[in-house]
Design brief:
Blueprint lengths: L1 E7 L14 E2 L2 E2 H8 L6 E8 L2 H7 L5 E5 L11 H16 L5 E5 L8 H13 L6 E8 L4 E3 L5 E3 L14 E12 H7 L7 E5 L11 H19 L1
Parallel strand pairs: 1-4, 1-6, 4-5, 7-11
Antiparallel strand pairs: 2-3, 6-10, 7-10, 8-9
């Protein structure tokens, strides 16, 4: 199966300026995504889709990465990631005559994602490809969720759920770490979820997604802990 692995990394970010190349534990976020793919064995190509020269310059340091300059009309705050994915498919077809079976969306904001997880995720997609045309990563969550009622008060989402965390049935949260979508379904549905999507649970730490400064603090703590364990 041939994959187009796309790292969507536009320049605009209101919460954290230049979030996609913000240095976390001394390394730009984008580089964690690129380095993650170094040990993944797959047939296809890895591209970074960006509208920004600073981000492009980070990606261009890697010889095995193709940088695709994204048009302005699909790079604003309201633009969908899917537009960048479909544009990348068209670009690779027009410029290099290449075609693919599926698109892997690798968000640059998950610095703890592991190469082996990506490899296993691809294998899970291929195993279920006859039934599902898309797959996404999930994180397990046993929180006791509450909802706001019409009268403004709050109540438990599952009133009969056990009070002890260990006894609750888990829920699963979309963490945005990795998606795979069949090419035809992505184009037809304009969604990474395709027509029929399956889930794949990964470790909660790998699912950490950088959106706020507090997320950076958590990610740095976990990354530094990993480095300490490796070194010694």
């Amino acid at each position: 199966m041939r994959y187009l692995v796309v790292i969507p990394a536009r320049g605009g970010s209101k919460g954290i300026p230049y979030k996609n190349i913000y240095k976390v534990a001394g390394k730009p976020l984008l580089e964690y995504a690129i380095d993650c793919m170094k040990e993944v064995k797959f047939e296809g190509d890895l591209v970074v889709s960006t509208d920004d020269d600073k981000i492009a310059s980070v990606a261009e340091k890697y010889e095995f990465v193709t940088v695709i300059k994204r048009p302005d009309d699909i790079s604003n705050d309201t633009a969908k990631t899917e537009a960048a994915l479909i544009h990348a498919l068209a670009y690779m077809k027009e410029m290099y005559g290449k075609d693919y079976d599926a698109v892997v969306t690798l968000q640059p904001t998950s610095p703890l994602r592991k190469s082996r997880t990506v490899q296993e995720f691809m294998a899970a997609y291929e195993k279920g490809a006859e039934e599902f045309d898309a797959i996404l990563t999930l994180s397990e969550d046993r929180s006791d969720f509450w909802v706001k009622k019409e009268d403004g008060s709050y109540g438990r989402l599952f009133p009969d759920a056990p009070r002890r965390r260990q006894e609750r049935a888990p829920l699963f949260v979309e963490n945005s770490a990795i998606y795979i979508t069949k090419k035809e379904s992505l184009i037809e549905c304009n969604s990474v979820l395709g027509k029929k999507v399956n889930g794949y649970v990964i470790d909660a730490s790998e699912g950490v997604d950088i959106n706020e400064l507090s997320d950076i603090m958590l990610a740095e703590s976990l990354l530094l802990q990993e480095r300490e364990e490796i070194e010694g």
